[in-house]
Structures are given as structure tokens and as C-alpha cells.
Model the fold of this input.
Amino acid sequence: MRPLVAHIDLDALRHNYRLACRCAPQSRSVAVIKADAYGHGALACARALEADVPAFAVACIEEALSLREGGIQAPIVLLEGIFDADELALVDEHRLWISVHSAWQVEALLSYSPRQPIPVWLKVDSGMHRLGFSPEQVASVWQRLVDAPQVTALHLMSHFASADAQDPSVFNQQMRVLQGLADELKAPLCLANSPATLAWPVAHGDWNRPGVMLYGSDPLEVANDVTRQLRPVMSLRSKIIALRELDTGEQVGYGGRWKAPRPSKIAVVAAGYGDGYDRHAVDGTPVLVNGQRCPIAGKVSMDMLTVDVTDVPEAAIGSEVVLWGAASNGAVLPVDEVARYCATISYTLLTGVLPRAPRRYHGANV
Ligand SMILES: Cc1ncc(COP(=O)(O)O)c(C=O)c1O
Done:
């Protein structure tokens, strides 16, 4: 069998979720498991967390229904609400919660007669200018929803554009808008994503919505004492399948991007962009070979990548190679670090791992 496997540590997931809760003891934290739990497998992650979490959050009804089909009973909120008025029947049948970000969604909801009132998170555009009602529109929409028999457990919800940044100016501006609305309407809030959960207690509301931190990625520009306790959930591991001895000046891979600066030993690893490993990885992007850091040498191919193992004499065919996450010997290569070498963020690497890399689950409930 091809040796590439995405190992998913469900105990680490539960540890990270509990850390998020400890950061915000006055809030309830939904576990954000959209996009197949950021590539980790939504159903397995939901099963591992269900005993601890008061609710899950997904992007759309398809994601919610597959959780219900898998037996998940906990409340599930649709972060983008309905995409079509017809979905309300399913929302009602499956006891889903919805966010409402647009006028047409309000009209659809108020024209529908659910069997039981639907919990609603009213989305405010507090400055990100993506989804939500403008602050000036919120009070009138809020009042209509408060008065509507279709609606229960109404909250104000918003999303931060820069909660991860050290410069607090954008965050503070959004927070001023939201605090003003919360005071005026006496509205309970749901605001904090992972960086706000970790770094901005002022944003902790009735509910928080941590996502990426649950998977062990540190969303802050500068790590702190809490983020250093996060544990990687996905460890993307493969093996060396071939070795090459090169003379000084010989080149490796497509376009010959890497040229040996000295007599070198190159390992070929079974992992490539056809598995979701980022083709933008530059020479020097780290991997762990037998737990030791080694640099990628040459462009990533579809099924393989090449690594300079000159300084790891014991590297051999079959040696373990960790693309990110934890090695068998306990060494860790943070996905955030790999992302920086690929000029991207951990979110794209984690959600980008393709089904060709099978997930293997360890820990809680498996
Ligand atoms: C509306 C909303 N809430 C919460 C989250 C979770 O954010 P994070 O993964 O940064 O914690 C996201 C993620 O994109 C989101 O779109």
C-alpha cells in the first residue's frame, strides 16, 4: 500500500477543544467542523467531541445532514444559513440552528411555519464587509425577529477580520460597533473565532466559535502560553521510497530548481500535490525524516517530493517522513510553519488534503 496516511489524533482534538473552553470559561463554545472538520473528517471529529460540546457549526445544510445521518444529535448551526427558502423544511425537521445574514433570508423565515421555533443568529457586518446586516439595519431586523413566533434563542453574531493580528485597531473598531449594538438591543453575542477566543477576552460572548485551534493550529501572529499547549491533530506521514546520491551541481526535479551545493543524498517521498501537499513549497520547506528536520529540495511533483537527507545518514528506504504534525518519536513539525514556507495558511493545507491520502483515526471513541 502507498505509505501516505493522514493520522488523526482525536484525543488531541478533545484536548484542544477543552483548551478553547478554558480560555473562555463564561462562554459556550461551538466546535466549528465545517469543510469536513478542516479536512480531518467531520463525522469522526463530531463523534469524538459530542459528549463535550453544546453545539457544532458547519457552513451549509449538506454538512449538517451528513452529521445527522451519522447519528449526531447535538445542535448544529448553519454559519451561512440557508441558501434557498426550501431548506427551511429540513432545518425544521433536523432541528438545526441558522444564521441570517440577508433580507431575503428574513423574509423566507417569516413566511415559513416551523413545527418548533428555530434558534437564529442574526449576522452583523461589523466591518469585514462579507456577510451580514449593516449596523444601521440591525435594530429593525432584530425587532422583527424578536417578535416572530418562528424564532427562538436570538443572538447577534459577527466575524472578525483581524483578530489574529498584533495591531488591535481593526479588532477594536469592530468590537466598538458590536458592543454598541449589544448594549442597545440587550442582545447576547456570538463573536469569537479561534484568535479572538485565544487573545481577546472582551470578545467572549454567550457563544464562541473556535475552529482552526481545535485542530492544533496556532492562529495568532505571535504564539502565547496557551497556543503553545495546542496539540497537532493531523499528522501527514509517508515514507522514503527511493534514494539518490548526487554530485555537486546535479539538479533535482522539474525545471531543475534545486542544484546540489555539495555531494548530496536525496530521498524521494510518496506525497505530492495530487495528495494535496502544496506545490508552492519552496526549497528548504521542512519535513521530518525519522523525526529529524530536513529540507525539501526541488519542486513538488504530483505523487512525490524530494528531500535533502545528506545530514541524516540513517535515512533509508522505508524511513518515516512527516509532512506536518507529529512524528512517531514525538518530534513535531507545526502545520503553521509549513504553511509559511508555502506562502499560505494552515487552513488551506489542512482542508486541501485530498481523499487519496486516507485518514486513520486514533484515540477517543475509535
Ligand atoms: C463565521 C465563522 N465563524 C467561525 C469560524 C472559525 O474560525 P477559526 O477557524 O479562525 O477559528 C469561521 C471560519 O472561517 C467562520 O467563517
Notes: The chain has two domains: 10-229, 234-362. The pocket of pyridoxal-5'-phosphate is lined by residues 32, 79, 159, 193-194, 209-213, 219 (CB under 6 Å). The chain has a mean pLDDT of 97.
